[in-house]
Model the fold of this input.
Amino acid sequence: MAKILRHHPSNSTSEDDDDGTDCPLSGAEALAACKEFASVTNTDSGLAMMMLQQNGWDLQRAISVYQGLQNKSKSTRLKTTPKTSESDSKRMKSKEATTTSEFNDDKTKVKSRFKLLSWNIDGLDEQINTTETRIYGVIDVIKREEPDAVFLQEVIPTAIDLIRSLLPEYDSYAGNVKGYFVVILTRRELFKVENFEIITYPGTNMERNLLIVH
Done:
């Protein structure tokens, strides 16, 4: 079988990947901010964590930016919605009925799109004691988005244990079992994986490697 996924991890140090999103809050304060954001915006802790990190952990600014993005998205959809005549509407309804009939037939179901999620989950950042909160947020996003395959970077042993426990619909393949490493997740109902291999980069002092899933 051909190789279905090939991923080049970038196991760089936290200094290399520093994007200026260090949290000035305590663990309890960060968790409370995530819950407040999720409650106000009717989203989940994964999105809350991401928006707060991107906005310097300023709750009001994060909410304002998120709502602005939502309003902009709605405005764009309204401007681009084409007007249809009565005859066009009838043709569309007829086409919709035919399409629905085709997709209701189990024998004709064919997956036409492939969804891939790639994410550096920053598992090395333990200074604010929010590692577990971040991991649960990552799992929430994966459950909501339902990607077919997931590439994760900077995963730590605690994270992979939770991922394997809470995402049973995925098979998981890790580039290591200690320190931090990359992980590939594949949806069981879609992929038939024969094996995987780990190729160590020669001369590396940071245990960098190439994780390949066949």
Residues 1-20, 93-108 have pLDDT under 50 and may be disordered. The two ends are 7 Å apart (CA to CA).
